């Protein structure tokens, strides 16, 4: 089977990417290991064809030129959609060119920024939509101002979800969100696979800053969606009781709600003593990040909304217990009291209490929780979500052919 992934993002060497990009990379590699062919088509800063870990990638530059009618005042608010639509069409043109020489059996796309929008209802190849997120919810949680262009993007995202030949969600949480707010039912929930990291490790950051430290770890975007603001308040509450404990945050600042950076927010809402024990680092490649996770006392993920996140699976894969939140999809992964603890969504006090629950465990209890995490990883690996995904592809192709 030849599978095409249409995506707004994909990793490049030396440029760490977020959950969607890493999901496509590891899923693509798993499909190749099963004997299938995978091709990635993505939006990027420039037109380029390259290979990433054996996966052929066709990158298409996003259009920057507005159509001629965009100069007319009454139509200017629609130019963002027109430019995005042109970018999608440019990507579709590359797709059809590749398809003419190496026929593609099925298309998988994210709904995020609707990259396969102009491939909908193409009549030749079925389009499967994977729910990446629900943007109106995320904008509300982030505190970002919503512009007209955002409404247009949201409309295109939803149109892609509704018009796709089939759709699946990584989490029941996001499936329920679409069902509740848009009356769109998912065909199947297919959890994200765990990737067992076998690459080289880079211990330089760990040795330089953290080798002799006991620390709590967060890695990901610094924003309110991920609950990073809650960490300032929770750590402030427990810091005095654990004077040797550090808080380490690794990622990019992506905070919309505050006029200043998330780092400034921490400084403003924490005591000087607690803030002095907080360390911020930029996003790291997997080789360095795996070392930080493996040596962490505990991984923190108090997301207000998530979608069966890769980050939690990565933490488990390295044997780390995780603190997650209710009604966020993390409660679909973490077993409270067994592989970590669950706190109330958006509640800093509950979050602090969950951290304390872990810290007061005996060494034997922590060792048992680590064994539970390892057992959870084995269960996820045994569930073979890639097999589920392949079966879903085959069923979608069969249904598509019957309707033609």
Structure description:
The structure is a single chain. It contains 14 helices and 14 strands. With 404 residues, it is of the alpha/beta class. Helix 7 runs parallel beside helix 8 and helix 7 (228-238) crosses helix 12 (348-359). The radius of gyration is 22 Å and the shape is globular. 40% of the residues are buried.
Largest beta sheet, briefly? 8 strands, mixed
The domain count comes to 2
- Rg value: 22 Å
Q: What are the segments in which pLDDT stays under 50 over at least 5 consecutive residues?
A: none
Number of strands: 14
Mean pLDDT: 92
Question: What kind of assembly state do the chains in view correspond to?
Answer: single chain
What is the number of helices?
Answer: 14
Q: Order of helices and strands, N to C?
A: EHEEEHEEHHEHEHEHEHHEHEHEEHHH
Shape: globular
Strand percentage lies at 15-25%
Features:
single chain; 404 residues; alpha/beta; Rossmann fold; 2 domains; 14 strands
Topology diagram in text:
Elements: E1 2-7, H1 19-33, E2 37-44, E3 48-52, E4 55-61, H2 79-101, E5 106-110, E6 127-130, H3 135-142, H4 148-163, E7 166-169, H5 172-182, E8 188-189, H6 204-209, E9 214-219, H7 228-238, E10 245-250, H8 262-269, H9 272-275, E11 278-281, H10 286-294, E12 298-300, H11 310-317, E13 322-325, E14 340-343, H12 348-359, H13 363-383, H14 385-403
Parallel strand pairs: 1-2, 1-5, 2-4, 5-6, 6-7, 7-8, 9-10, 9-12, 10-11, 12-13, 13-14
Antiparallel strand pairs: 3-4
